[in-house]
């Protein structure tokens, strides 16, 4: 798999080439990265990549020509490396957010992609119309540019490539099950007077599995009730799950504060722990 990133800040991509799972996967040859700086595709003395918006307004707009020339260079390199000219995807704050489903499909499809990172107020619309196949965002919040979003996308896709993970993490299934993860604990068994849920120390694997399932159900019901509805609609909840959800809905009453005001329900959890 190959990513060619059009960016004014190529050095930022060291974050994924020099660290962690993405670094290892790249060293294993599972994916390649090249960066293309629009500044290197300018022809004026000042290497200008941006200009003031027609119609007025704050900030600067990335000019079409340096971006288009950079994309063409990226495509030529993709072809030379034995990939076809890949899809061109722009990271845009104004697009639909990427989903886990599309990330998995992307990893499965493989091949080459050109990612175009915006900066400043935005990108000349004519470049987007003429050269870009798709625009994606990573969520409804404002970043300073497309680079961190591009790295998030690459990270999300690469970890799905066969061989990228040392262990096929159960946590990775969290979106596959459609539920949030259960809590995790490690040594020491008591930390600052806080114990570990006794079930996890019991060695009863079936009980541990059930405890984790119920933790996941409870956390998801509290933090992301929309995911409970989706799991139900997708037939991913069995009768035991539904019974547990009815029980916690009873217990929750109407008086509990919104989850966001209840810092991870640490106090409630501690009460049932081993210390
Ligand atoms: C303050 C400027 N904004 C006016 C509403 C427009 C704007 C321009 C450029 C907002 C963000 C950006 C830079 N962001 C991205 O390029 C970006 C992004 C994001 O901000 N959030 C989530 N996903 C993405 S993908 C690219």
* Beta fraction: 5-15%
Bound molecules: ligand 9D3
Q: Give the SSE order as H and E letters.
A: EHHEEEHEHEEHEHHHHHH
Q: Count the DSSP helices.
A: 11
How much helix, percentage-wise, in residues? 40-55%
Please give the radius of gyration in angstroms. Answer: 24 Å
Instruction: Assign an overall shape.
Output: elongated
Class of secondary structure makeup: alpha/beta
Which whole number gives the mean pLDDT? 92
Distance between the termini: 49 Å
- Could you name the ranges where pLDDT drops below 50 across 5 or more consecutive residues? 258-271
List the strand order in the largest sheet: 2-1-6-5-8
Main sheet makeup: 5 strands, parallel
Describe the structure.
The chain has 275 residues and is of the alpha/beta class. 40% of the residues lie in helices and 11% in strands. It contains eleven helices and eight strands. Helix 4 links the parallel strand 5 and strand 6 (112-117). The protein binds ligand 9D3.
């Amino acid at each position: 798999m190959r990513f060619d990133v059009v960016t004014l800040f190529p050095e930022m991509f060291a974050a994924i080439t020099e660290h962690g799972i993405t670094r290892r996967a790249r060293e294993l040859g599972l994916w390649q990265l090249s960066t293309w700086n629009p500044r290197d595709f300018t022809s004026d003395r000042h290497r200008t990549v941006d200009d003031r918006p027609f119609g007025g307004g704050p900030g600067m707009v990335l000019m079409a020509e340096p971006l288009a020339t950079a994309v063409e260079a990226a495509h030529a390199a993709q072809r030379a490396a034995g990939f076809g000219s890949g899809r061109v995807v722009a990271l845009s704050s104004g697009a639909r957010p990427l989903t886990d489903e599309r990330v998995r499909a992307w990893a499965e499809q493989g091949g080459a992609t050109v990612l175009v990172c915006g900066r400043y107020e935005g990108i000349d619309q004519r470049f987007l119309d003429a050269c870009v196949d798709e625009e994606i965002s990573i969520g409804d919040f404002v970043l300073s540019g497309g680079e961190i979003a591009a790295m998030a996308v690459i990270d999300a896709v690469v970890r799905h490539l066969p061989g990228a993970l040392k262990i096929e993490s159960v946590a990775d299934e969290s979106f596959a099950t459609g539920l949030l993860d259960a809590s995790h604990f490690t040594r020491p068994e008591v930390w600052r007077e806080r114990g570990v849920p006794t079930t996890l120390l019991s060695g009863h694997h079936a009980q541990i599995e059930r405890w984790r399932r119920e933790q996941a159900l409870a956390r998801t019901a509290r933090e992301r009730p929309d995911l409970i509805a989706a799991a139900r609609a997708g037939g991913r909840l069995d009768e035991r799950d539904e019974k547990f959800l009815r029980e916690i809905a009873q217990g929750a009453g109407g008086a509990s504060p919104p989850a966001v005001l209840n810092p991870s329900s640490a106090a409630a959890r501690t009460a049932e722990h081993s210390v």
